[in-house]
Design a protein that fits this description.
This protein has 168 residues and is an alpha/beta fold. Helices cover 46% and strands 21% of the residues. It has 5 helices and 5 strands; from the N terminus they run βββαβαβααα. It has helices spanning 48-66, 82-101, 111-119, 128-139, 148-164, and strands spanning 9-14, 19-28, 31-41, 70-74, 107-109. A 5-stranded mixed β-sheet has the order 3-2-1-4-5. Strand 1 and strand 2 form a beta hairpin. Helix 1 (48-66) runs parallel beside helix 2 and helix 4 crosses helix 5.
Length: 168
């Protein structure tokens, strides 16, 4: 459950059915500041229901540990493989459920919006490498976090930090 802090904590999540990346930032004024990051790794060979259960447990534990005030989740992109998209949709649903059970309603952002917030542009020229480089620069990290799921999650949190400051 969120607490009242001067600087809101934002948890960014990059959903996956095998690896879910997460990044936690705090917003001081309009500047995002890195707090923590990591991944929830699931057993690749495990049946989907077991992976989803482990993902729920991992998200529940993460939300309790990090106590975010807000959560930002990357939206499902249109995948070429319908089966992969369906599985990823299940994972996103589990993440949304875990957040809702903690009293948090995640904001969802398309990948292009996340790239624009970090790079100032989206589209094909906004490569994962460029996003990772800018995430490192924006948050003042010594190195680019690995795997890429982490930088995607941190980028999502940065996107939310920028969007929350815009007038509606």
């Amino acid at each position: 459950m969120s607490t009242s802090r001067q600087q809101p904590r934002i948890l960014g999540v990059d959903p996956g059915s095998r690896i879910t990346g997460w990044g936690l930032i705090e917003v001081e004024g309009s500047e995002p500041r890195w707090l923590d990051h990591g991944v929830i790794r699931l057993h690749q060979k495990a049946p989907l229901p077991e992976r989803l259960s482990l993902l729920y447990d991992g998200m529940t534990s993460l939300l309790s540990k990090t106590e975010p005030d807000e959560v930002a989740v990357e939206e499902l992109y249109v995948a070429r493989n319908a089966r992969s998209a369906l599985i990823l949709g299940h994972a996103r649903g589990v993440i949304m459920l875990a957040c809702a059970r903690h009293g948090l309603i995640p904001e969802e952002y398309p990948a292009n919006t996340v790239k624009q917030a970090v790079l100032g542009q989206g589209g094909a020229s906004a490569t994962k490498e460029r996003v990772a480089f800018m995430v490192r620069a924006i948050l003042g990290l010594d190195e680019i976090p690995q795997p890429a799921d982490i930088t995607d999650a941190l980028a999502c949190a940065i996107c939310h930090a920028h969007k929350r400051d815009l007038p509606t």
